[in-house]
Design brief:
alpha+beta; about 25% helix; 6 helices; extended; two-stranded antiparallel ribbon; Ku70, Chain: A, Domain 2
């Protein structure tokens, strides 16, 4: 079944305009969600808006939107004003620059969407996708939509285009705020760590190899409960919070993967160790023959 567009826009760079449609790239229905029920009658609960000032539940027709510009002080917006602001959005994806794909930190990625050509825009759409794929670049653009301006990255994928909604720089915290402490990286440990990375390396990332084991297990338990079967949930053993001997842990990891044996010697020692010289063999002393008397 063909995907249904959730939005539209126009990619523009130079004098070229490409009308496109926006499609969801993720499937939220794959997640298992739970409803909140009343433990007495098992009825599903409804959320209500409560006003603590008047101590009453507020109906939808008495709810207004406001922005808090100071403590407990708000400026109000009517539905008409908010609608007018949204209608000012041009849905224009104006490309400001092209950057290498590897130059954008994945931390900036917020959500992804597929882009498809609108009617009559197939040729310029494919042209842009091919140009980006050949150059291994992506387009940075501003997308004005629904009363806001998003920073987006348009990149090639499988002969088509993908739009990544990006976070602005002020939405990311600085990594310098995270304490990492100090620790000496020893050469022998680094050599083992690199070897372990090499053993676990793959040429490409294949997401189909990975499944949501928690969701699968949860589905099994749900089916057991539906059938009225007893459910036993085992608690996995928590991993050790501290590595006692880093070198031994690295060597054991390599040995488990079929790498070097878990020896107590470091790689440097193993490489430099030479077999001991064998002692020069001496001929056994000749036995003295007893002379026979005639």
């Amino acid at each position: 079944m063909a995907a249904r567009a959730i939005g539209s826009g126009t990619i523009s760079f130079g004098l070229v305009n490409i009308p496109v449609k926006v499609y969801a790239a993720t499937e939220s229905a794959a997640r298992i969600s739970f409803n909140q029920l009343h433990d007495k009658c098992k009825g599903r609960l409804r959320q209500q808006m409560y006003c603590p000032v008047d101590d009453e539940v507020v109906s939808r027709d008495h709810i207004v939107k406001g922005y808090e510009f100071a403590k407990d002080q708000y400026v109000l917006f009517t539905p008409e004003e908010l609608k007018a602001i949204e209608e000012e959005s041009t849905k224009q994806m104006e490309i400001s620059e092209f950057v290498p794909l590897s130059a954008v930190d994945p931390l900036y990625f917020e959500s992804g969407y597929f882009l498809g050509p609108d009617k009559g825009a197939e040729r310029p759409y494919r042209l842009l996708a091919k140009a980006l794929e050949d150059s291994q670049h992506a387009a940075v653009a501003r997308y004005a939509n629904r009363g806001r301006e998003d920073l987006v990255l348009i990149r090639p994928k499988g002969g088509g285009l993908v739009m990544e909604q990006l976070r602005y720089a002020d939405e990311l915290r600085s990594q310098s705020e995270v304490p990492v402490g100090e620790g000496e990286v020893k050469g022998a440990e680094l050599q083992l760590a690199r070897q372990l990375v090499t053993q676990l390396s793959a040429d490409t990332f294949d997401a189909s190899k990975y499944q949501d084991r928690y969701r699968q297990r949860l589905q099994e338990i749900i089916q057991q409960k539906i059938k009225g079967e007893p459910v036993t949930i085992s608690t996995p053993e928590a991993p050790s919070p501290q590595v006692i001997d880093l070198m031994e842990a690295l060597k054991a990891s390599l040995a488990k993967r079929g790498g070097v044996p878990a020896s107590k010697e470091t790689p440097d020692v193993v490489a430099e160790r030479k077999p001991p010289k064998r002692a020069t063999e001496r001929p056994a002393p000749a036995s003295k023959k007893k002379s026979r008397k005639a």
